[in-house]
Design a protein that fits this description.
Helices cover about 30% and strands about 25% of the residues. It is α/β, with parallel strands linked by helices. The strands form six sheets. The chain has a four-stranded mixed beta sheet, with helices on one face. The chain has a four-stranded mixed beta sheet with strand order 2-15-17-16. Strands 4-5-3-14 form a four-stranded mixed beta sheet, covered by helices on one side. A hairpin with a 2-residue loop joins strand 20 and strand 21. Helix 8 runs parallel beside helix 12. The model has no long low-confidence stretch (mean pLDDT about 95). It binds uridine-diphosphate-N-acetylglucosamine (UD1). Uridine-diphosphate-N-acetylglucosamine (UD1) binds next to helix 1, helix 5 and helix 6.
């Protein structure tokens, strides 16, 4: 078990480079299964989730090479196994994204149902309805979904909700289906667009990614390509909040400022100075944070993956703020821990009401998921004394060396081994 020990730090100052996007690289690794040609992907972040996805595609038949400079080479000459076992899917839900590519390339897939997780029930019904529309036969048995289709056939699919994962899974499957597919009410998140651009580089015929109607004309086969993934907007947003919270002055490099608009707008409303360059953003704050209301929504709304971090920010604001979480039903696990640090937050269903305080106190707190963990680290930077964030493995699932990067900005943070299982506390 790992813990992050965070001490009250001076205002963060300096420059930090954001890594490639976690939510882009995971579906893109799955998408490499669509071709027997070699793919080279650049700026791949060092994350536990990337390791899990690599292990999964290796067990399916991929050969992988990874270099020190963030380059990943993947080639899957043939599909040796069509299964994604429970051990992997339960560790990382994005494993379910191999279903579309497997079904499209080999006509069958056997994937464990992911089950619920710390932030909600997270069903996969929209994925399965879409595969059925594409002509797959779906059977659920013993916690697994078995899907078969001699040849997928293009179809018109309307998603009841613009699910990121369902849009990606169906988009990948449609690339090799016979005929045309239209995905309506599709997700417009930047990572869906990145996946579509990757697929287009492989030779897929896709139009409309980034709008709510994506049109795909199936092709017979796909090639390999060289591709650089987009920067991680949630990592960037986390550093933006860190700068605002510590009254620092931080330039965040390797960003696409447009992708950060919802976060930039909220920070400006809080009284924080944010200035954009072509591929960097500077966040400077000398003021007390003003309380603002926030509602998480699909892109271009405020991202649910930034909700926990802004909850920490609002805990130290002037006034009362209301945060409404509309994407996941149980994404306030960080709140109990923030309250243990002295925050004043009340939860009613999907709404958090936060009375801003002047001060938080360091404590031993537990990261229940990735973004909850990041929120506690941010709170620890400004809390009096020392904060120990237990279960820090969650953080390295999705942040590329967060502690190291924060240290370069002047934060006092160290990773340490935790001897006892924190659950027994
Ligand atoms: C992705 C991101 C995650 C982000 C989320 C929302 C990856 C690897 N993960 O997760 O970081 O928080 O988007 O922006 O990209 N739903 C259904 N049925 C389905 C699919 C989804 O009801 O078949 C519901 C979910 O339970 C959830 C909501 O739709 O309440 C959003 O889920 P979705 O957009 O699919 O998120 P993920 O792809 O799992």
């Amino acid at each position: 078990m790992n813990k992050l020990v965070v001490r009250h730090s001076n205002p963060l100052k300096g420059k930090v480079r954001v890594s490639g996007s976690k939510n882009s690289i995971l579906p893109i690794i799955a998408a490499t299964l669509l071709t027997d040609q070699k793919n080279t992907i650049e700026d791949v972040p060092y994350l536990k989730d990337v390791d899990v996805m690599c292990s999964l595609v290796q067990s399916i038949g991929a050969e992988i090479e990874r270099s020190q400079n963030g380059q990943l080479t993947i080639k899957t000459v043939c599909i040796k196994d069509i299964a994604a076992p429970y051990q992997l899917v339960s560790k990382m839900r994005a494993s379910f994204l191999v279903m579309g590519p497997l079904l499209a390339r080999s006509g069958k897939a056997r994937i464990s149902l992911p089950g619920g997780c710390a932030i909600g029930a997270r069903p996969v019904d929209l994925h399965l309805k879409g595969f059925t529309a594409l002509g797959a036969e779906i059977n659920q048995l013993g916690g697994y979904v078995e899907a078969t289709a001699k040849k997928l056939k293009g179809a018109q699919i309307y998603l009841d909700f613009p699910s990121v994962g369902a849009t990606e899974n169906l988009l990948m499957a449609a690339c090799l289906a016979e005929g045309g597919t239209i995905i309506e009410n599709a997700s417009v998140e930047p990572e869906v667009v990145d996946l579509a651009n990757f697929l287009i580089s492989l030779g897929a015929d896709i139009k409309g990614a980034g709008t709510d109607t994506i049109k795909v004309n199936g092709v017979k086969e796909l090639q390999g390509c060289n591709y650089t993934i987009i920067p991680d907007r949630i990592e960037a947003g986390t550093f933006m909040v860190a700068a605002a919270l510590t009254k620092g002055d931080v330039t965040i490099d390797n960003v696409i400022p447009d992708h950060l608009k919802p976060i930039t707008a909220k920070l400006k409303e809080c009284g924080v100075e944010v200035s954009e360059e072509l591929s960097s953003i500077r966040v400077k704050n000398t003021n007390n944070i003003k309380a603002v209301d926030i509602k998480t929504l699909p892109y271009p709304g405020f991202p649910t993956d930034m909700q926990a971090q802004v909850t920490s920010l609002m805990s130290l604001s002037e006034g009362t703020s209301v945060i409404i979480e509309t994407i996941f039903e149980n994404r306030f696990m960080h709140v109990c821990e923030l309250n243990r640090m002295g925050a004043n937050i009340k939860i009613d269903g999907r709404t958090a009401v936060i009375e801003g305080k002047n001060l938080l106190n360091g404590a031993r707190v537990k990261a229940t998921d990735l973004r909850a963990g990041a929120a506690l680290v941010l709170a620890g930077l400004v809390a009096e004394g020392t904060t120990e964030v237990l279960n820090a493995e969650h953080i390295s699932r999705g942040y590329d060396r967060l502690d190291e990067k924060l240290r370069t900005l002047g934060a006092e943070i160290n990773s340490e081994e935790e001897e006892n299982d924190s659950d027994s506390e």
